[in-house]
Each structure stands twice: as structure tokens, then as C-alpha cells.
Amino acid sequence: MDYNFRDIESKWQRKWAEEKTYHVVEDEKKSKFYVLNMFPYPSGAGLHVGHPLGYIASDIYARYKRLQGFNVLNPMGYDAYGLPAEQYAIQTGQHPAKTTEENIQRYRRQLDKIGFSFDWDREVRTCDPDYYHWTQWAFERMFNSYFCNDSRKARPIDELVKRFEARGTEGLDAAQSEELQFTAEEWQRMSEVEKQQTLMNYRIAYLGETMVNWCPGLGTVLANDEVVDGVSERGGYPVVQKKMRQWCLRTSAYAQRLLDGLDTIDWTESIKETQRNWIGRSEGTEMEFKVADSERHFTIFTTRADTIFGVTFMVLAPESELVDELTTPEQRAEVDEYLAYVKKRTELDRMSDRKVTGVFSGSYAVNPFTGDNIPIYIAEYVLAGYGTGAIMAVPAHDSRDYAFAKHFNLPIIPLIEGADVSEESFDAKEGTVMNSPKAGRTAFDGFSLNGLTVKEAIATTKEFVKSHGLGRVKVNYRLRDAIFSRQRYWGEPFPVYYKDGMPQMIPEECLPLELPDIETYKPTETGEPPLGRAKRWAWDEKNREVTETSRVDNVSIFRLELNTMPGFAGSSAYYLRYMDAHNTTALVGKEADDYWQDVDLYVGGTEHATGHLIYSRFWNKFLFDCGVSCKEEPFRKLVNQGMIQGRSNFVYRVNKAADEVAASAPVFVSHGLKDRYDTTPIHVDVNIVDNDVLDLEAFKAWRPEYNDAEFILEDGKYICGWAVEKMSKSMFNVVNPDRIVEKYGADTLRLYEMFLGPVEASKPWDTNGIDGCHRFLRKFWNLYFDNRTGGSVVNDEEPGKDSLKSLHKLIKKVTEDIEKFSYNTAISAFMIAVNELGQQKCHSRGLLRDLTILMAPFAPHVAEELWQQLGGQGSVCDAAWPTWNAAYLAEDEIQLTVSFNGKARYQKRFPTDASDEAIRRSVLDDERSLKYLEGKRIVKVIIVPRKIINIVIK
Ligand code: ANZ
């Protein structure tokens, strides 16, 4: 039988589907193992060879675990909501559901060709109402919860209401948008709407006024990375900072738990560090400053309370409510002009720009320690959303304050004895002895920091501030609440309607609230989100159903929310849904959750380090608090696959003067000759280049403007230039896995993707090695079949000692390497073993059975076929992973290097148990030694056990 991979692969793919080989059900008799891939967004471009890298890596692990006897869950689905489908809909008028469906079908066809062990019965799609039912449900749960800081968990909002009724806010420690204080009587006196507004301050899903990047031209809020130099990246429309009422999730309440959880999971240090920085815990002090000649006070946040004697000015964030109050009439015009400038700047610009800007408010603050008056400035480098949005500025010890002081000619007071205050001297933090020159003038007798280290000085000041009622110790986190509204169509609708301006949740039993159809996908003329166009988008409270928008009467029929949820909504709990994908009464049933618990291995890209991996951890912690998810951390181990980069090709177009361009045909010069001309490199489709040689006819046919192209060749060929770049459609370097599968088979593709290098490393796609992997599979096949006659060569003889050693060495290596995700080295070991077994002419059935099982995770189709040919029972997937026997591994020979006067001359093998005397005799008798010994005297023979034998001669 020939290695006919096309027949073999299609046969097994069909059988696996028919026999539901990869369908998995809970089985108490077996231990569970949950393998998960970050599910794909089904883009219009389909899969390229970079996409399956992680899927293959996790599939190998999933198959390996199954062979070890685990009950393995390995599901797949689609992150199906998103912007590209919506943009396409705006351009073409096609419903995004239609393009999404087509793209999913295409993805599925491509995935099926690669032979994954996915349980497709558990597929989820985020745009499917049966799925987003549970996204909406979780949102409602968040709306109906608050975060209790005492118990550090989410609690039902009803408990908070009861508490307010009994005691108001007295003794309450809850996560909140702003600090509120009221008594039980004040609560009772509030109107229903006021009560709702108050509760909004505590809800985990809440409507909040937040600053957003608003782009009027596109009619939507943009993310920071979609804004460049104050205009939208797409279209170049102006973007302004605008306060908008948006749905937010109180992720900040979970900051400490998100931080603590990192210590309990097996992720790379680099991703954990990225998350720690993103969460940004900072311990500092909040201090009260009085405004001079006024009763007003304001609070600043500082991590360096010890530098209070070096404060020479104060700074307010431009958005601070104090700005208006503290601006004096004389400064008003200048301040207004400055505020208009800041409005155009995104937070990202403000943080990354080193440009110094700001304006004096006209007011002064009083330093609580010295009584000095210090000017209050307004400047964009202080951000509204962090700390209190106000700072005390210490130019001698903070680089931004320093730059500001220099620019506005403000005093700089050094606090470290003999410190040279300049732009380079800001890192003197640890262990430095302080000298507070103004200590003598302090309003507090005897308070001095002189002689202390920075650490001691911070602690002393903090303590002092606390005990004298000047402020309090405060932990801040950089992590912000997540903005959860998008002015888009193709996303989950919020299960929300508005009554008296306050949001109401659709009753849980009425979920899901389905996305309505609309005719065009743009914002409305009045700037409402696309759902403002929906004809049926109102809630009939009495009949508990969606009805015509025109029937809204605000008595029993109300408007539904027009925003939709963002991309991360649907991807935040999908791993739980896979556990119980068809449950109609819960996101996940208790039984399924108890069995599968959490993801044992999660594979995906590092680009999700601060987005998805923070949001889903937050979401899961919330569900854990609600008793829905039984594990606090959803992903136990995380492996980040590297990127497969493209190898791009270039042609070099000879530049011509403007008047020549229209008239004559384009000329392209081959790479080796290009320096003789003035040229422009142009990306060319790698599919019409073979080993860097351009297919001239295909090139001419590629683009109409190249139909009559002319070429300057070298050695009769056009050689293209090349570079390693991101694999992308725009670089024309995309390789479609379908082509590789067609030419070499899926098993070769799988092996090759893993053979390219360590899973975590980024590496260029270079097809040159594919033949090698394909030849290896043929060699492997030839251990079972005669490559000339095609007949089986398998026999029932006992394998020889050397063959057993080859096999057991391989079992050990492959097992250990799979455990470390070092698949490339496992495959190398396979290549060596197959060569050895070939040379040994080993065709023993028993040995080949084990070899087939070892191959099954990597090349499942060929393994399944050979398993059947060997007479194996059922699918090779259900065989038992072989274990190695140490007895077979023992080396019976060792190799020593023979040296003369320290120079290595040759190598020789000896039995492992050879005595030193036997080695000595054998070396001295060896004919290769004779020429070195001739006419010389042996002074000494030194034997380093298992390594070297050195003969000293004279
Ligand atoms: C005085 C001081 C002296 C400061 C000194 C630093 C060094 P982290 O560690 O990131 O929490 N700050 C406070 N709120 C700010 C805001 N809204 N926008 C910009 N800067 C702000 O940093 C806290 C420090 O950053 C605070 O401590 C404050 O400056 C500044 F030698 O106060 B510091």
C-alpha cells in the first residue's frame, strides 16, 4: 500500500465525523482535562498558515492527554461579532449575519482539512441568541450587584438597599464611583429616581459619565489606538474628548483580586508582569490642601509624601471640577483657551508626549506643613481619571514636574543633601538620606525628616499625615473601569429599556433580547447609534415583549437601549459555555461546571495580555462570587504561541520622470542589478514566485497595469528581493494552509508547523523545509510497507535490543518534550528513531504499535490508518500512551576522546563496564595511536572517566 495521503486523510476525516470520535461527555470514571484555544474572529480573508499554529500545538496536547487516559474537552467556536463585518455591511448593504455565516463556513472547511480533535457539538458563536442570552444575563447580574470591600466580593444590590434603609452609608465600605454619605432618613426621603441614581454609584454594571474619544464624523466612540494625532485613524476625522453616559463595568473593584490571582496560575512571567503593570497598584497618601483666602479644600494623591517640603506648585487636571472654581477672572481667557486645546488631545497623547503645556489658574494653595502659598496650575500631564486628578509638584524629584518648573520658571528645592538637581537625577529613591531644608519652618513643632532614608521618610510622613488629620493612606490602581457601550450595530444588544430616564432590566425570563434587523448600518441623522433606525425596538412592559418603536408612550411602552456591547463581552465567559453548550436554563449547569471546573491549558496570542485576559478573569471572578463558576481563576496554564511571519517578495520598478509614466510600459529590474537604477520596491504576491524567481507570465497577468511590463533579467531570470514581515494580505505574503494540505497533506502541514521552531517563538514561514517533513512521513510509512511492492512488511518477530532501545529512547523524549511543549525537538527525535529503525530493518508489530501511538498526536491521519493496518482495535485515539522501560535505555557502550599531549586525535567506543586498564591497553594497541607513539616515550596515561583519555608523551 502506498502512502496516499489524500485518500487517507479524507477517509479518516469522514470516519471521525461519522463515528463522533471527538465527541466528549462528562465521565466520572475519568479525570478531566480541558484544552482551549482563543477562539477566532472569522474574517473574510480566511485562515493563513499562521492561524493554525496554536490550534495544532493544543491539538497535539489534547490528543496526548486522551492517550494518557484523560477525558479531554477540546472545543472550538467563533468570536463572531465585530467591526469588519459591520464595515463591510455599511459598504455593501449586506447583513453582517450573512457575511459572518459565510466566513464561518469557510473557516470550518479550512479547519476540517487539518484534522483537529475538536468536539464540534459544543461549538459556540457569540452572535447566536442562544449564546448571547448568557452574556445579557451576566450583565443583568452585574447590574444587580455591588462590590463589598469588607468581604472582597460581589453581593446582591438588594442587600445594599436594606442597609441604606437601616443605616444609610454609615460604616459602608463598597466600591463606588464617588464617595457618598447619607443617613437612613435621607435615603427614605429620596424619590424613586434619586434612589436609582444613588444605587448607580455602586452597581458593578453601571451607567457612568466618562471621558471618551468621540468622533462626530464616524458617529462613534473610538478606542485609544484608533486615534492618531487627534484625528481618527480611519478617515482622518477630528476626534474630541467628550463626557458621555456609557455603560461601564466596575473592573477596578476587582483590581486587588486580579493581582493576587496571578500568583496562583501557571502563566509566563512576562504576561503576568504586563498584567501587574496594567493593574498598576500604587500605595500612597491622599493629602488635603487648603486654597489660600478661601474656605475651599482639595485632595491630592502622592506616593512621595516625604517630599512635602519641596512642593513649589500644585497642578490640577484640566477636567477637574476645581478648575472652574479656582480660575480667577484675570486668568479666565487664558484658561479657557487652554481647555479648548486639551479637549482635542487623547489620554494617550497626553501620557506619551513630552511637550510641556499648562496655564496658571490665578489661585494659590497653602502647604499644610510650612504654611507657604504655592501657585495652582492646570496642566494636561495630570490625568483626571487617576488618583484625585490633582497633585503637589516637586520639581527636584519628579521629572515631569521638573520640566514644567523649568518651562514656567518656578522654583526647584532640592531635598537630598548635595543632590545635583537636573533631568538625570530623579532615580535617587532608595536609601538616600534626606535633608529637608525648610524643616525649621514647619508649622508642626519638631517634625523633621532630616537624616532619614527615603523609605523611612515616606513612612514617617504618612504616619504623621494620618495622625494629624491631614489626609489618609490610600492604595490606588491604574486599572480603570471598562467602558462597555459601543455605538455599533453588530454586537450584543443590552437587555435594557429606559423609564423616567433610568435604565430597567428586561426580566430574566424574557432573555435573550434579540438584535433587530435594520436597513442601513450607519448612525442616524441625529447622531444616534444604528439601532436608532430599528422599526421594532421598544419594550412593552405589560406584554413583556419587543414592539414597534412608534408605539413608545413612556407609560407602558419604552425605548430600548441603542448601544450594543463591545467585542470583549462575548469572549469573557465562552469557556464556561463550552462545558455545557446546550443548556437552556443556565450559562453552565452545576454538574458540568463541577466536572470541567476550569481550563487546564489555554493557548493563544500575547496580543490579548491586557484585554481579553483581564476582562475574562474579571468576569469569571464575578461569576465565582455568584456561585456560577467553581474556580476563581479560569485559565490554569497559559501558553502563548509565537507569530508566523511572512516571507515577502519584492520587484523593483524603475522610476521614470513624470511625463514618461503614462506613455510607456513599466520596467522592472532584477534584484542583483537594481542598484544601477533608480527604483521603487513593490510587494509581489509570493504565490507567483518560486525560490525567489518571478513567474513573468503570472506577474503580467496579476495586475492589468503590468500586462505589458518589461523586465531587465539576470542570467535569464528575474530574481525578487525578500524580507520577513508580518503575514498579511496587504504584503501579499499570505500562505493559505489549503494549498499546503493539497500538495503535501494535513499531517505534513501539522508536523511542519511544529518543526519550524519552539511554539512560543516567532518565526518566518519558509516552505523550504516542508519536503523534509513529507519525506520523513514516507520513511515512517516504509517501516510498515515495502515501498516497491506496496505490500506489508510487518512481522511478528521479537524486536532486537537495539530497536527496543531506539523505541524507548523515543518514548521518553517525546513524552518529556510534549509536557514542555517542545514539539520541534520531539519531531527531531522521531526522525532519528525512524532512521535507526529503518537501518535496523525492524518491522516488528508490537514495536510499530507503540510507534504508531506516539505519532498519533502529531500526524493523526497516518497514525489512524497504520493503526488499523496493524489490526488495532477502535481508534488510535483510544489506545494507551506507551511508557518507557529504563532497562532498555541503558547505554552498553561509551565513547571516549583519545588525546596525545592534550590534543584530541580520535574517538573510540568501549563497553560501559571496561576497566581503566582495559581502556589503556586497547588505546595503546590501536593502530591509530601508532603514528603518535612512534619514537616517543609514554610518560603518563590519564583517564577521565566517561570522557577523555590523554596520553602524555615525550
Ligand atoms: C509628589 C511627588 C514627588 C510625586 C516625587 C512623585 C515623585 P504612581 O506611582 O503612578 O501612582 N500623580 C498623582 N496623581 C496624578 C495624576 N492624576 N496624573 C499625573 N500624575 C499624578 O504615581 C503617583 C505620583 O504621580 C504621585 O506622587 C504624583 O506625583 C503623580 F518626588 O507627588 B507625586
From TrEMBL:
It is an enzyme of class 6 (ligase). ATP binds at K729. Residues 276-438 form the Leucyl-tRNA synthetase editing domain. InterPro entries: aa-tRNA-synth_I_CS, aa-tRNA-synth_Ia, Leu-tRNA-ligase, Leu_tRNA-synth_edit, M/V/L/I-tRNA-synth_anticd-bd, Rossmann-like_a/b/a_fold, tRNAsynth_Ia_anticodon-bd, Val/Leu/Ile-tRNA-synth_edit. GO terms for biological process: leucyl-tRNA aminoacylation. Its EC number is 6.1.1.4. Residues 804-916 form the Methionyl/Valyl/Leucyl/Isoleucyl-tRNA synthetase anticodon-binding domain. One of its GO terms (cellular component) is cytosol. Residues 11-144 form the Aminoacyl-tRNA synthetase class Ia domain. A motif ('KMSKS' region) lies at residues 726-730. It catalyses: tRNA(Leu) + L-leucine + ATP = L-leucyl-tRNA(Leu) + AMP + diphosphate. Keywords: Aminoacyl-tRNA synthetase, ATP-binding, Cytoplasm, Ligase, Nucleotide-binding, Protein biosynthesis. Coiled coil: none annotated. It is found in: Cytoplasm. GO terms for molecular function: aminoacyl-tRNA deacylase activity; ATP binding; leucine-tRNA ligase activity. The keyword Transmembrane does not apply. HAMAP family: Leu_tRNA_synth_B (MF_00049_B). Belongs to the class-I aminoacyl-tRNA synthetase family. This is Leucine--tRNA ligase. It comes from Segatella baroniae F0067.
